[in-house]
User: Which sequence fits this backbone?
């Protein structure tokens, strides 16, 4: 029996249009160490929900990754200053304190190596309007996931969130010994 998979099965997302958009910082994800062109770097990703909707009526999102550094020349520090409207104080700063902040984002398009058009945040300005985080939005860390980092299928949810299924697969019906092995 063959298993056929469509090569183009991934969804094509519409990039946020170029220009200035109101956006709310809805999620911050610790990506851990990520391989970059400059070697492995400890990264964090900001997820912004914009004032623009796609064809289906869903809020468009835009993401920006940063190296976890608050050095005075680091991009993260510059963007945190722009989000807050002032520089940070002290030796440490909890970036999750930025969640819910509304700003105006300047979006510019660029073409990726794969030929797709991506929206990039090239500037963060003071907010002109206030946007709330939608009540149905779930942060990545709060979403249920299976071992591959994706949401579980409805059938797995019905089976107890995957725990009962995993236990049934992991526990053999009879003990394994030399009499059971067919070779």
Assistant:
């Amino acid at each position: 029996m063959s298993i056929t998979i469509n090569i183009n099965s991934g969804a094509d997302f519409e990039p946020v249009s170029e220009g200035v958009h109101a956006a709310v910082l809805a999620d911050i994800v610790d990506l851990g160490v990520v391989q970059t062109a400059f070697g492995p770097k400890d990264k964090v990703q900001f997820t912004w929900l914009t004032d623009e909707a796609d064809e289906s009526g869903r809020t468009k999102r835009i993401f920006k990754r940063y190296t976890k550094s608050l050095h005075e020349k680091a991009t993260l520090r510059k963007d945190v200053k722009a989000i807050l409207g002032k520089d940070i104080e002290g030796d440490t700063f909890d970036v999750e304190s930025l969640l819910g902040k509304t700003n105006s984002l300047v979006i510019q398009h660029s073409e990726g190596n794969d030929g797709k058009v991506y929206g990039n945040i090239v500037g963060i300005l003071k907010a002109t309007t206030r946007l709330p985080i939608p009540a149905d939005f779930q942060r990545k860390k709060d979403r249920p996931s299976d071992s591959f980092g994706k949401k579980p299928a409805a059938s797995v949810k019905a089976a107890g969130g995957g725990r009962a299924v995993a236990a049934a697969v992991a526990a053999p019906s009879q003990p394994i010994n030399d009499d059971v092995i067919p070779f």
About this structure: Residues 146-176 have pLDDT under 50 and may be disordered.
